[in-house]
Protein backbone atom coordinates (compact mmCIF):
# COMPACT_ATOMS: atom_id res chain seq x y z
CA UNK A 1 0.00 0.00 0.00
CA UNK A 2 1.27 3.49 -0.82
CA UNK A 3 2.38 5.41 2.27
CA UNK A 4 1.84 9.10 2.89
CA UNK A 5 5.54 9.90 2.64
CA UNK A 6 5.76 8.21 -0.73
CA UNK A 7 3.07 10.45 -2.12
CA UNK A 8 4.27 13.77 -0.74
CA UNK A 9 6.14 14.36 -3.97
CA UNK A 10 8.14 17.35 -5.11
CA UNK A 11 9.62 18.14 -8.49
CA UNK A 12 13.07 16.77 -9.31
CA UNK A 13 15.47 18.25 -11.83
CA UNK A 14 16.28 15.64 -14.45
CA UNK A 15 19.95 15.93 -15.37
CA UNK A 16 23.21 14.00 -15.62
CA UNK A 17 23.40 13.61 -11.83
CA UNK A 18 19.80 12.46 -11.37
CA UNK A 19 19.67 9.06 -9.66
CA UNK A 20 17.18 7.13 -11.77
CA UNK A 21 17.59 4.05 -9.61
CA UNK A 22 16.61 6.00 -6.50
CA UNK A 23 13.33 7.32 -7.93
CA UNK A 24 10.44 5.41 -9.45
CA UNK A 25 9.80 5.55 -13.16
CA UNK A 26 6.50 7.38 -12.72
CA UNK A 27 8.18 9.97 -10.45
CA UNK A 28 10.78 10.70 -13.11
CA UNK A 29 8.13 10.88 -15.85
CA UNK A 30 6.04 13.32 -13.86
CA UNK A 31 9.09 15.45 -13.06
CA UNK A 32 9.69 15.73 -16.80
CA UNK A 33 6.07 16.69 -17.35
CA UNK A 34 6.01 19.25 -14.54
CA UNK A 35 8.92 21.05 -16.22
CA UNK A 36 7.25 20.96 -19.62
CA UNK A 37 3.69 21.85 -18.64
CA UNK A 38 3.72 23.15 -15.07
CA UNK A 39 1.84 20.07 -13.87
CA UNK A 40 0.94 20.10 -10.17
CA UNK A 41 2.86 17.04 -8.98
CA UNK A 42 1.03 16.76 -5.66
CA UNK A 43 -2.37 16.76 -7.39
CA UNK A 44 -1.22 14.09 -9.82
CA UNK A 45 -0.12 11.83 -6.99
CA UNK A 46 -3.48 12.25 -5.26
CA UNK A 47 -5.13 10.91 -8.41
CA UNK A 48 -2.56 8.14 -8.71
CA UNK A 49 -3.05 7.17 -5.07
CA UNK A 50 -6.79 6.85 -5.67
CA UNK A 51 -6.08 4.49 -8.57
CA UNK A 52 -3.83 2.44 -6.30
CA UNK A 53 -6.65 2.14 -3.76
CA UNK A 54 -9.11 1.04 -6.44
CA UNK A 55 -6.76 -1.69 -7.64
CA UNK A 56 -5.99 -2.75 -4.11
CA UNK A 57 -9.70 -3.21 -3.49
CA UNK A 58 -10.20 -5.14 -6.72
CA UNK A 59 -7.28 -7.47 -6.00
CA UNK A 60 -7.89 -8.00 -2.30
CA UNK A 61 -9.07 -11.60 -2.76
CA UNK A 62 -5.72 -12.69 -4.22
CA UNK A 63 -3.22 -14.02 -1.71
CA UNK A 64 -0.65 -15.02 -4.31
CA UNK A 65 1.12 -12.88 -6.88
CA UNK A 66 0.32 -15.25 -9.71
CA UNK A 67 -1.05 -15.28 -13.24
CA UNK A 68 -4.65 -15.20 -12.04
CA UNK A 69 -3.97 -11.97 -10.15
CA UNK A 70 -2.19 -10.52 -13.20
CA UNK A 71 -5.14 -11.29 -15.46
CA UNK A 72 -7.50 -9.70 -12.94
CA UNK A 73 -5.37 -6.55 -12.79
CA UNK A 74 -5.36 -6.31 -16.58
CA UNK A 75 -9.13 -6.84 -16.65
CA UNK A 76 -9.66 -4.12 -14.06
CA UNK A 77 -7.65 -1.62 -16.07
CA UNK A 78 -8.46 -2.45 -19.68
CA UNK A 79 -12.01 -3.78 -19.41
CA UNK A 80 -13.63 -2.27 -16.34
CA UNK A 81 -11.85 1.10 -16.44
CA UNK A 82 -11.38 1.18 -20.23
CA UNK A 83 -7.69 2.07 -20.40
CA UNK A 84 -6.71 1.73 -24.05
CA UNK A 85 -4.39 2.79 -26.82
CA UNK A 86 -5.52 5.78 -28.85
CA UNK A 87 -5.41 4.57 -32.43
CA UNK A 88 -7.04 7.70 -33.87
CA UNK A 89 -4.63 10.28 -32.45
CA UNK A 90 -1.49 8.26 -31.83
CA UNK A 91 1.04 11.09 -32.12
CA UNK A 92 -0.79 13.73 -30.07
CA UNK A 93 0.98 15.31 -27.10
CA UNK A 94 -1.96 14.43 -24.84
CA UNK A 95 -1.28 10.75 -25.53
CA UNK A 96 2.36 11.02 -24.49
CA UNK A 97 1.93 12.92 -21.22
CA UNK A 98 1.45 10.45 -18.40
CA UNK A 99 -0.85 12.68 -16.33
CA UNK A 100 -3.21 13.09 -19.29
CA UNK A 101 -3.18 9.36 -19.91
CA UNK A 102 -4.17 8.71 -16.30
CA UNK A 103 -7.10 11.14 -16.49
CA UNK A 104 -8.23 10.27 -20.05
CA UNK A 105 -7.37 6.55 -19.88
CA UNK A 106 -6.03 6.74 -23.41
CA UNK A 107 -2.46 6.89 -24.61
CA UNK A 108 0.39 5.27 -26.50
CA UNK A 109 2.53 2.27 -25.51
CA UNK A 110 5.18 4.10 -23.50
CA UNK A 111 2.86 6.43 -21.57
CA UNK A 112 0.41 3.63 -20.83
CA UNK A 113 3.39 1.43 -20.03
CA UNK A 114 4.80 3.82 -17.42
CA UNK A 115 1.47 3.76 -15.60
CA UNK A 116 0.99 0.01 -15.99
CA UNK A 117 4.45 -0.63 -14.56
CA UNK A 118 3.54 1.50 -11.56
CA UNK A 119 0.28 -0.40 -11.05
CA UNK A 120 2.06 -3.74 -11.37
CA UNK A 121 4.76 -2.87 -8.88
CA UNK A 122 2.20 -1.42 -6.47
CA UNK A 123 0.47 -4.82 -6.70
CA UNK A 124 3.75 -6.60 -5.85
CA UNK A 125 4.55 -7.93 -9.32
CA UNK A 126 8.12 -8.31 -10.57
CA UNK A 127 7.80 -6.22 -13.73
CA UNK A 128 10.22 -4.34 -16.00
CA UNK A 129 9.86 -2.15 -19.06
CA UNK A 130 11.38 -2.94 -22.44
CA UNK A 131 12.01 -0.36 -25.17
CA UNK A 132 11.07 -2.86 -27.86
CA UNK A 133 11.61 -1.71 -31.48
CA UNK A 134 7.90 -1.82 -32.38
CA UNK A 135 6.71 -0.17 -29.17
CA UNK A 136 7.16 -0.27 -25.42
CA UNK A 137 6.30 -3.59 -23.75
CA UNK A 138 6.37 -4.93 -20.21
CA UNK A 139 7.94 -8.12 -18.92
CA UNK A 140 6.40 -9.81 -15.87
CA UNK A 141 8.16 -12.63 -14.07
CA UNK A 142 5.78 -15.00 -12.28
CA UNK A 143 7.36 -18.03 -10.64
CA UNK A 144 9.02 -19.92 -13.53
CA UNK A 145 7.12 -18.09 -16.27
CA UNK A 146 7.96 -14.90 -18.13
CA UNK A 147 5.05 -13.02 -19.63
CA UNK A 148 4.97 -9.98 -21.91
CA UNK A 149 2.23 -7.35 -21.90
CA UNK A 150 1.46 -4.91 -24.69
CA UNK A 151 0.34 -1.83 -22.72
CA UNK A 152 -1.34 -0.39 -25.82
CA UNK A 153 -3.90 -3.21 -25.86
CA UNK A 154 -3.56 -4.80 -22.44
CA UNK A 155 -2.98 -8.16 -24.10
CA UNK A 156 -0.43 -10.80 -23.22
CA UNK A 157 1.95 -11.03 -26.17
CA UNK A 158 3.47 -14.34 -27.22
CA UNK A 159 6.98 -14.48 -28.66
CA UNK A 160 5.44 -15.20 -32.07
CA UNK A 161 3.33 -12.05 -31.85
CA UNK A 162 6.35 -10.02 -30.75
CA UNK A 163 8.30 -11.26 -33.75
CA UNK A 164 5.43 -10.29 -36.05
CA UNK A 165 5.43 -6.81 -34.50
CA UNK A 166 9.18 -6.65 -34.96
CA UNK A 167 8.94 -7.55 -38.64
CA UNK A 168 6.22 -4.97 -39.12
CA UNK A 169 8.61 -2.36 -37.77
CA UNK A 170 11.98 -3.48 -39.16
CA UNK A 171 11.04 -5.59 -42.19
CA UNK A 172 10.46 -9.26 -42.94
CA UNK A 173 14.10 -10.20 -42.45
CA UNK A 174 14.10 -9.07 -38.81
CA UNK A 175 14.29 -11.79 -36.19
CA UNK A 176 13.52 -11.65 -32.49
CA UNK A 177 16.65 -12.00 -30.39
CA UNK A 178 16.98 -12.54 -26.62
CA UNK A 179 18.67 -9.15 -26.29
CA UNK A 180 15.53 -7.40 -27.56
CA UNK A 181 13.58 -8.78 -24.61
CA UNK A 182 16.04 -7.65 -21.95
CA UNK A 183 14.57 -5.00 -19.62
CA UNK A 184 15.73 -1.40 -19.84
CA UNK A 185 16.65 0.78 -16.90
CA UNK A 186 14.64 3.84 -15.87
CA UNK A 187 17.10 6.23 -17.50
CA UNK A 188 16.71 4.57 -20.91
CA UNK A 189 12.91 4.49 -20.60
CA UNK A 190 12.68 8.14 -19.55
CA UNK A 191 14.90 9.22 -22.43
CA UNK A 192 12.66 7.33 -24.82
CA UNK A 193 9.58 8.95 -23.27
CA UNK A 194 11.09 12.42 -23.65
CA UNK A 195 11.95 11.67 -27.28
CA UNK A 196 8.35 10.61 -27.93
CA UNK A 197 7.03 13.78 -26.29
CA UNK A 198 9.51 15.85 -28.31
CA UNK A 199 8.31 14.28 -31.57
CA UNK A 200 4.70 14.99 -30.62
CA UNK A 201 5.52 18.63 -29.93
CA UNK A 202 7.34 18.92 -33.25
CA UNK A 203 4.34 17.45 -35.07
CA UNK A 204 2.01 20.04 -33.56
CA UNK A 205 4.65 22.76 -34.25
CA UNK A 206 5.19 23.58 -30.57
CA UNK A 207 8.88 24.11 -31.22
CA UNK A 208 9.71 25.85 -27.95
CA UNK A 209 8.37 22.86 -26.02
CA UNK A 210 10.29 20.50 -28.28
CA UNK A 211 13.40 22.56 -27.52
CA UNK A 212 12.77 22.05 -23.80
CA UNK A 213 12.73 18.31 -24.45
CA UNK A 214 16.10 18.61 -26.21
CA UNK A 215 17.44 20.52 -23.22
CA UNK A 216 16.33 17.76 -20.84
CA UNK A 217 17.85 15.03 -22.99
CA UNK A 218 21.14 16.91 -23.17
CA UNK A 219 21.13 17.47 -19.42
CA UNK A 220 20.96 13.70 -19.07
CA UNK A 221 23.57 13.04 -21.77
CA UNK A 222 25.48 16.24 -22.65
CA UNK A 223 27.62 14.46 -25.25
CA UNK A 224 24.79 13.13 -27.41
CA UNK A 225 25.79 14.65 -30.75
CA UNK A 226 22.61 13.42 -32.46
CA UNK A 227 20.49 15.29 -29.93
CA UNK A 228 22.64 18.38 -30.45
CA UNK A 229 21.98 18.04 -34.19
CA UNK A 230 18.23 17.80 -33.59
CA UNK A 231 18.39 20.87 -31.36
CA UNK A 232 20.17 22.67 -34.19
CA UNK A 233 17.25 22.04 -36.55
CA UNK A 234 14.86 23.42 -33.92
CA UNK A 235 17.06 26.49 -33.41
CA UNK A 236 17.06 26.99 -37.18
CA UNK A 237 13.26 26.85 -37.36
CA UNK A 238 13.10 29.36 -34.50
CA UNK A 239 15.51 31.68 -36.38
CA UNK A 240 18.24 31.26 -33.75
CA UNK A 241 20.72 30.88 -36.56
CA UNK A 242 24.04 31.25 -34.75
CA UNK A 243 22.95 28.64 -32.21
CA UNK A 244 21.88 26.34 -35.02
CA UNK A 245 25.27 26.73 -36.74
CA UNK A 246 27.10 25.88 -33.51
CA UNK A 247 25.06 22.70 -33.06
CA UNK A 248 25.53 21.62 -36.67
CA UNK A 249 29.28 22.17 -36.42
CA UNK A 250 29.37 20.17 -33.18
CA UNK A 251 27.73 17.23 -34.93
CA UNK A 252 30.02 17.47 -37.96
CA UNK A 253 33.09 17.47 -35.71
CA UNK A 254 31.89 14.32 -33.95
CA UNK A 255 30.52 12.40 -36.97
CA UNK A 256 32.25 13.75 -40.09
CA UNK A 257 31.32 10.63 -42.11
CA UNK A 258 27.61 10.65 -41.28
CA UNK A 259 25.40 10.82 -44.41
CA UNK A 260 23.62 13.93 -43.11
CA UNK A 261 26.84 15.98 -42.94
CA UNK A 262 26.43 17.22 -46.52
CA UNK A 263 22.99 18.60 -45.70
CA UNK A 264 24.28 20.23 -42.51
CA UNK A 265 27.08 21.96 -44.41
CA UNK A 266 24.53 23.34 -46.87
CA UNK A 267 22.44 24.55 -43.94
CA UNK A 268 25.47 26.29 -42.46
CA UNK A 269 26.18 28.05 -45.77
CA UNK A 270 22.57 29.23 -45.88
CA UNK A 271 22.80 30.39 -42.27
CA UNK A 272 25.88 32.46 -43.17
CA UNK A 273 23.77 34.16 -45.83
CA UNK A 274 20.79 34.70 -43.54
CA UNK A 275 22.64 35.71 -40.37
CA UNK A 276 22.32 39.49 -40.91
CA UNK A 277 18.53 39.13 -40.61
CA UNK A 278 18.70 36.81 -37.60
CA UNK A 279 16.08 37.17 -34.90
CA UNK A 280 17.71 37.34 -31.46
CA UNK A 281 16.12 35.18 -28.76
Describe the model:
This protein has 281 residues and is α+β, with helices and mostly antiparallel strands. The protein folds into 2 domains: 178 residues, C8orf32 fold, CATH 3.10.620; 55 residues, no CATH class. The protein contains 13 helices and 6 strands. It has a 4-stranded antiparallel sheet, with helices on one face. A two-stranded parallel sheet has the order 1-2. Helix 2 runs parallel beside helix 9 and helix 12 runs antiparallel to helix 13. 33% of the residues are buried.
Summarize the structure.
With 281 residues, the chain is an alpha+beta fold.
Helix and strand topology:
Blueprint: H1 4-7, H2 25-37, H3 41-58, H4 67-80, E1 84-85, H5 93-96, H6 98-104, E2 106-107, H7 109-122, E3 126-130, E4 137-142, E5 145-150, E6 155-156, H8 159-170, H9 186-203, H10 207-220, H11 225-237, H12 241-254, H13 261-274
Parallel strand pairs: 1-2
Antiparallel strand pairs: 3-4, 4-5, 5-6
Helix pairs in contact: 2-9, 9-10, 10-11, 11-12, 12-13
InterPro entries: SirB1_N (IPR032698), TPR-like_helical_dom_sf (IPR011990)
Domain Protein SirB1 N-terminal: 50-195
Family: Belongs to the UPF0162 family.
